Every structure is written in C-alpha cells, then in structure tokens.
Amino acid sequence: MFNPPGPVSISRRFFLAGGALALTGIGIRATQANSIIGKAVEITGDVTRKQADRLEGLKAGASLMDHDFVATGKESFAELALGEDTSLLLGSETELLIDTFIAGQGGTIELGTGQMVFDRPEGLAKIDLTMRTAFGMIGVRGTKFFAGPSRGVFGVFVEHGLVEVTGGGVTRQVGRGQGVDIAAPGAAPSEVARWGEARIREAYASAGIR
Length: 210
Prior knowledge:
Elements: H1 12-18, E1 36-44, E2 47-51, E3 54-57, E4 63-65, E5 69-72, E6 77-82, E7 86-90, E8 95-102, E9 106-111, E10 116-119, E11 128-133, E12 136-140, E13 144-150, E14 153-160, E15 163-167, E16 170-174, E17 178-182, E18 193-194, H2 197-206
Parallel strand pairs: 9-11
Antiparallel strand pairs: 1-4, 1-6, 2-3, 2-5, 5-8, 6-7, 7-10, 8-9, 10-13, 11-12, 12-15, 13-14, 14-17, 15-16, 17-18
C-alpha cells in the first residue's frame, strides 16, 4: 500500500514571503467581501475552516468564501468546488488560503503545507489563476495539475493544459504529461521532464485520488 509523502512544513511568515515572487500576466478584480464562491463537496476526516477569526469544522455542503483558510488533518482529505466547474482536492495535512476567486475568471490561492490537485475540465474558457507557494508561483490558465511534495522535492505535474512555474528568477512552461521539481524554497524549477506513471500515481494518491 502506498504511503503518501509527508508534507513540507512552511512557516506562515516564510509562506507569505514566498508569495512575493513575481509572475507577469496575472490579474484579477477583487470580489465583494463575504461573497459565496463555492462549497465543500466531500470531506474525509478532520478538516477545518478559518473565516476571519472564527475556526470551525468544515462539513460537506458548507459554503466557501473569499479569504477562507482550509486545513486538513492527518489522513484527512477535502474536495472543494469553486464556481461550477473548478475543483481543488486537498491531501492530508494541507493548508490552503482562498485569497480571491471569481467564477469563470480566476483569482489567487495560497498553498502552505501539503499537496493538492487543481482540476478544471478541458474545453472550458481559460481563466487566470495564480497559486502562491513558498517554493514559487504557478500561473494557471485552466487545466488539471498536481502541486506538492513528491519524492523529496516540491513537484508540479500537469495532466492537461499549461501552467507557468516561476521560482528563483526562472520561469518554466509545463504542458500535458510534464512536470518540474523545485529542490528548496528560492531555488529555480528544474528543466521540464515527463513524469512516469508510478510517480503520477503517487502524487495523486497523496491528494486523495486513488
């Protein structure tokens, strides 16, 4: 039985500092405060949501809003829907901040610890979404990809679509079936390479996809 890789611990201060890395071409209008942007679809185990200063358990069916901070516990998973066609699958011991999101347009999310799969079906209109991490920035145009710890590094793998991964002053374009590794916060992403089936399965399993 596969044991998913452990999460990479990132302090909040360092996490936010990592989010300051530059990524060109990403822009989004601010949403109205307290607007409902999605919902929790499926919850397994211990999952919490912090909204302003209120911390509570997150249950399936609960609404999501801008600035919600979602955290999964050990051996816990969450599937979140943003709008009607964008899904975020969070692995065990993962922290995610939904900074802003507008359905059909995009927004900004921050991945602290852990791993996740972003899933938006092919054929839909492209969106502009930025994922900030301590390891770098990921520019998304509507796609399906994994981001998180993978075989001792921070990995990004694209199943379909295209993302731009920026770190250490270097930007890589990653397309279908390809991935990059970032060895440490502040390091540049590796050259783009194809991932093997075993590594893809391991990555998806760590985000709760079997």
